[in-house]
Amino acid sequence: MSKPVLVIGAGPVGLTMAAELARYGTSVRIIDRLPTRTTESRALAIWPRTLELLDAAGCADAFMATGLRANAVSIHAGNRVIARIPFGAIASPFSYLLMIPQSETERLLEEHLKTSGHTVERETELTDFVDRDDGVSCTLMHAGGRIETLEAAWLVGCDGAHSFVRGRLGLAFEGDTLPMGFVIADVHVTGLAIPPDEPAIFWHPDGAVMFFPIARGHYRIIADLGPVPLHMPDLGEMQAIVDRRGPGGVILSDPVWLSDFGVNERKVRDYRRGRVFLAGDAAHIHSPAGGQGMNMGMQDAFNLAWKLALVERQEAGPCLLNSYSIERSGVALQILSDSSRMTRIVLLGSHLAQRVRNFIVKQGFRIPLMRRAIASRLSGILIDYPDSPLNMGSARGLHGPGPGQRLIARQGSGQGNMPRFILAARDSAEARAIMARHASLLTPEMCLPPDENGIWLVRPDGYVAAVAKSKNWTVIDMALNRMAPKHRC
């Protein structure tokens, strides 16, 4: 029996990782030291790019049936609307933001995992591991103190910001803690005169207060504390903040969750050491501005899972795994920069700077191109891998995405129970020859290319691996040959 991939942590990232590996027929176990999944709402936002990947995995419908679709986000100062960013123009089948509590995200992912016959092994903790050339020897402690030694093929640490796996590897979590704190409340809200499915940010000289809809009349409220030290708020304090910074007439009641949090901006340099990987908050944490954290982590899992599956199936060589850290680390750097910039813009302290900010935002967001650009950036559809070692060729002179950029192929290259590349090209004898030569890596059917004068090789996660002009099949052949099990790194 083959050694399993061991996934540590059953949050959204670990569950995504395990479910994807299971979908591809890879032996996998997922453990979590907690007895039950979270009941707290925590991360709320699922952006279009993540929904596209969930759709390819076959479970987006359950998310859409459960979550609340937000069609825009608005920025206010008192009763004045400074800017409104609609999501309807996002170039995705999912042109909206899905608001759904993390507790529900975990429930849906766990149910999806069960369809492949796998369950989370709870009250089970990784206490030690040794990375070897042929696997990872892991020591697990089960409920009641039973010790198990497991020989895993690979170890994936999805165990959060305080990751045991990262600590055991000795990887530095480089970055800063921002000198500011926040309070958070999930409460019932009445009197808020904005569309009930629209997140709203209210700017005030004292700071910001933000409303994120969870369900009808139920909101997540976040506010910065300014110079006040971190502390657990009560409903009265949250009401006072909303009264001062909000539009007026808003009443809070029935709190479900009250908490505080600080903001860290940190990441590891390398997401892999030997046969051990990090994903999600174990590899990167940042400001919640933009709602990108959980999406980034789940996309880490989607990126790594198809690569591990191909290597475990011996349909690709281990060199393929070298691309994971390069690709996802580059994305984390960009998101860290974006979220940090958004946080600092929201929390400007000087009243003059705030007035200038409000004026620039109001004028800038009157331009449709600006609104579309911001919506697209938030949505995740602009995430790409320009420095990926898997990239080959160029789209110069062609109408379509270049290597490392996203391309949603007609039939969805990630769908099904095998991770397969898809060829987007006109039918020809050369195309059929490539299909036959690389049958273990390619889907059996081609799809139409974005430009009939070009050829696109699309990865299982929907990103372009190679582009070539028509008849230049050498580029495509070379790109596929580099995946071969015997290819040398």
From TrEMBL:
Q: Which GO terms describe its molecular function?
A: FAD binding; oxidoreductase activity, acting on paired donors, with incorporation or reduction of molecular oxygen, NAD(P)H as one donor, and incorporation of one atom of oxygen
Q: Does the UniProt entry include the keyword Flavoprotein?
A: yes
Residues of the FAD-binding domain: 4-337
Q: Mind telling me what this protein is named?
A: Monooxygenase
Protein keywords: FAD, Flavoprotein, Monooxygenase, Oxidoreductase
Q: Which cofactor does it need?
A: FAD
What Pfam families does the annotation carry? FAD_binding_3
SUPFAM superfamilies membership: FAD/NAD(P)-binding domain
